[in-house]
Amino acid sequence: MFEWNTQKRPIIALAPMAGVTDAAYRQLIKSMAQEVIIFTEFVSSDAIHYKAKKTMKMLQFDPDIERPFIVQVFGKNKEHFASACKQIEEMGADGIDINMGCPAARVVSSCHGSALIRKPELAAELVHSAVSGISIPVSVKTRLGWENSETLIPFCKGLVEAGAKAISIHGRTYTQKYGGEADWNPIYDLKKEISVPVIGNGDIFNAKDAVDKLGNLDGVMVGRGTIGNPWLMKEISDAFKNNLISATETRSFDQILPTIIKHCELSVKCKGEPWGIIVMRKHLAKYVRGFDGAKEVRMRLMGAETLNDVKNELTR
Questions:
Q1: What is the DSSP letter of 104?
Q2: Which domains does the chain have, with CATH numbers?
Q3: What whole-number distance in Å separates Cα of residue 232 and Cα of residue 86?
Q4: pLDDT single digits (tens) 25-46
Q5: Which of 90, 145, 159, 160 has minimal Cβ neighbours within 10 Å of its Cβ?
Q6: What is each CA distance from 175 to 33, 135, 180, 248, in whole angstroms?
Q7: Cα(122)–Cα(217) distance, rounded to whole angstroms?
């Protein structure tokens, strides 16, 4: 059984990202760095409770590749949380993570995500509801606070007392969204105050960032820095394993092409055509940059609907 406390340190995690960390991307990352802990895109506990077809399909995973497999959920209804977590456990997931950090307006306006930072009692009750009927561990991903980090330690202490087995912190407040620089100092202070693993997140774009920011934490979580650069997770893993930071590798287009094709193939395998290619467009735009004629290629790729469309465009 997966347990946060027994994971090899430092923990290296792929951050849950809406519209990004689908099965294809998770499998791609695991093929490069098997030790990375992966999270799903965040899914609604209400939708799981009602067994919404689209949401249940998002929870499908390959148990031979995607372990440990952590499902991230959001919501505010305690009964639905308990129901959803039981279903997630029955599906074979290794853990559940509760989203208390998403700053998107539509999420916060419905009292989900970062909104829970201002409702610490409800946040703790949701954790308690989640852990009550299951045996797999529940963790929480949140932010420094609403406008500042003054509430971070008491907020997280309440989550741990309610049963959270690990805490991941994005080093920005809700009001910062994704602007400015991530501040990891309050995260280091939090680690001194709670006993469960604490993982830092924010502004990791190369292996040196990860090593420099780790400090007294149990691990690092990497999100946006991997989009268009999935090799980053292996570079970070190698840096921690070898205690050596190698220079960031510059890859030619011919070198990255096999990975682009593999990612597209995984997406089509998981979602079929044309949807498997349509959802790849954001990745393709990031992959194809910095090369001669990249702008024109990106524009043409935005109209691709089949795997052959992508292959023909990239190999012409």
A1: -
A2: 4-242 (3.20.20.70), 253-315 (1.10.1200)
A3: 34
A4: 999 999 999 999 999 999 999 9
A5: 90
A6: 34, 35, 11, 32
A7: 27
Encoded tokens for 228: 């268009």
Reported as a single tens digit per residue, the pLDDT across 156-209 is 999 999 999 999 999 999 999 999 999 999 999 999 999 999 999 999 999 999
- Pull the structure tokens for residue 126: 């949701």
Indicate which residue of 102, 156, 264, 270 is catalytic.
102
List the structure tokens of 95: 């853990």
Tell me if residue 156 is catalytic. no
SS3 letters for 36-65? CEEECCCEEHHHHHCCCHHHHHHCCCCCCC
> pTM of the full predicted structure?
0.96
Give, in degrees to the nearest 5, the angle at Cα 35 between 252 and 232: 25
Lowest-confidence pick of 45-49, 53-57, 292-296: 292-296
Please, how many CA atoms are within 13 Å of residue 20, restricted to the half-sphere of its CB? 22
